[in-house]
Amino acid sequence: MGNSEEMADHESVADTLRPLLRAAFGPDPGVAFEFWDGSAIRPAGTSHGTLRVRSKEALAHLVWAPGQLGLGRAFVSGTADLDGDIFGMMRALRSSAPHAPGAGITLGPGAVFQAVNAARRLGALGRPPEPPPEEMRTRTGGLHTRRRDAAAISHHYDVGNDFYALVLGPSMTYSCARFAGAGERPDDTVSLADAQRAKHDLICRKLGLDARPGMRLLDVGCGWGSMAIHAAATYDAHVVGVTLSHEQAELARKRVAAEGLSDLVEIRLSDYRDLRGERFDAISSIGMFEHVGSKRAAEYFATVHALLRPEGRLLNHAISAIGGSAMGGRSFVGRYVFPDGELIDVGRVVLAMEDAGFEVRDVESLREHYALTLRGWVANLEQEWDRAVELVGEGRARVWRLYMAASALGFEDGTLGLHQVLGVVPSGDGASGMPATRRAWG
């Protein structure tokens, strides 16, 4: 009888994994752990929920891909699960981790050693398990080439419009909402649909679309057309929306037609780099800049600058991270959610816009608003879980639940930021056409 089998006869899985869990999450993270043999480790105090490890394959994922990628693979594959308040559980696990509080659920060197030792004792060492099929592993072409960008966009967005409708709700808007209220903090009593409408209206007013009817707007990364529809219906703007997602373009055109706005809104399946030579009064880029990358930022801002008339404005609405953060191939988000994505420090965004010829006139953070937005999306997903699994499969539904919950916590603790940066192209004599104060857009 081998050593691992002898251990299994005399020691529970909980006993074997106790040193690993202590190294990874501290002595009492406030989460219960249950294992495939029925053994468990319970917290001394309040429990936020239960982390269920259903098979030793979860441990194998962790050994072969230490850190968040291995943890993510275990959850996506269903060999591990979070049962309870996912926000409370993830916050408890993150805050109790002795190696990097607030930096996400990762594993320090001590925890990796303990994982290998536990895997050996439990017979979990061997060939590496296959990653779940939801993981993107093929990336052809150079980083941020047109072909590779199109593949990355398709991986994330072409998963079914019905699934996105379930998660996003009737607004069909996949970006930070604005929960405007009378108080000093975001008003969580505002509905998600109203908050998205408030965000779109804020952007329209920042861009000056309320100044006169018939202004020409380019919406880069137009999604399912919600911003374009709002600008056309509310301010009589003539809008061109561009996206690389086939499914987004198809539904956006249907939504535009259903609203009777086909004479004002054109949706193109196109790369923003194909727009040279056209002219617009305003450009909105909402939740698209994360796909551009720091090496392409200068080209991006130079391209959109050339598309604007004098006194034309750009509103760049994007997730940011202090010092910048590339979603690399060893990260969960980089493999499952946003391949090749990159979060750029807002300071570098401002400098890149200025280098391209923009005068930056306003920077606003909506960090707390994105936390509320993501919590709303998670609530939608959990409420319609069975339908979501029917639409995209359990693995992909698990990806979304995990990444949206983790992202919400990132916005709450300041690891992630969301900034709207407003720039204008000054005319030859330096005129900007900008209002004197922010009161123009509220």
From TrEMBL:
Q: Which residues form the Polyketide synthase-like methyltransferase domain?
A: 163-409
| GO BP annotations listed | lipid biosynthetic process; methylation
Q: Where is this region: Disordered?
A: 124-144
Q: Which family does it belong to?
A: Belongs to the CFA/CMAS family.
Organism of origin is Nocardia macrotermitis
Transmembrane among keywords: no
This chain's protein is named Putative fatty acid methyltransferase
Q: What class of enzyme is it?
A: transferase
Q: What taxonomic lineage is listed for the species of origin?
A: Bacteria, Bacillati, Actinomycetota, Actinomycetes, Mycobacteriales
Alphabetical UniProt keywords:
Lipid metabolism, Methyltransferase, S-adenosyl-L-methionine, Transferase
Query: According to the UniProt entry, what is the EC number of this protein?
Result: 2.1.1.-
The record's annotation in InterPro entries points to: CFA/CMAS (IPR050723), CMAS (IPR003333), MeTfrase_dom (IPR020803), SAM-dependent_MTases_sf (IPR029063)
Source organism, top-level taxon: Bacteria
Known CDD domains for this protein? AdoMet_MTases
Name a Pfam family for this protein: CMAS
Q: Any idea which GO molecular function terms this record carries?
A: methyltransferase activity
